[in-house]
Amino acid sequence: MAEIDRYQPGTKHLLMGNEAIARGALEAGVQFAAGYPGTPSSEIIARLADAAKALNVHVEWSTNEKVASEGAAAAAFAGLRSLAAMKNAGLSVALDFLTHLSYTGLGKRGGAMVTVVCDDPEGHSSGDETDSRWLAKFASIPLLEASTVDEARDIMKWAFDVSEEFGCNVMFRGYTRLCHASSTVEMNDLPAFDREARSDTDRSINPYLAKPHHGALLEKLKEIKKRFESSPFNRYEGQEEPELLIICGGNGLLCASEAVEMLGLQDRVGILKVSALWPFPSSLVTAYLKKATKILVVEEVDPFIEGHVKEALADADLEGREVYGRQSGHIPDCGEITPDSAIRALAKIFGLAYRARGENYTHAVSEAADDLVISRGLTWCAGCPHRASFWALERAVKADGRDAFVTGDIGCYTLDVFPEGKEQINVLHAMGSGSGLAAGFGQLRRFRYTQPVIAICGDSTFYHASIPALINAVYNGSNIVQIVLDNAATAMTGFQSHPGTGFNAVGESAPRIDVEMLCRSLGCEVAVGDPFDVKGTIKTMRKLLKRENGVRVLILRRRCEIVRMRNEKVKPYKIEILEEKCKGEECSVCSSAFRCPALYQDPDTGKTRIKEEICSGCGVCVEICPFKAIKKEGRTS
Question: Which domains does the chain have, with CATH numbers?
Answer without folding.
Answer: 4-193+203-229 (3.40.50.970), 235-350 (3.40.50.920), 385-567 (3.40.50.970), 570-633 (3.30.70.20)
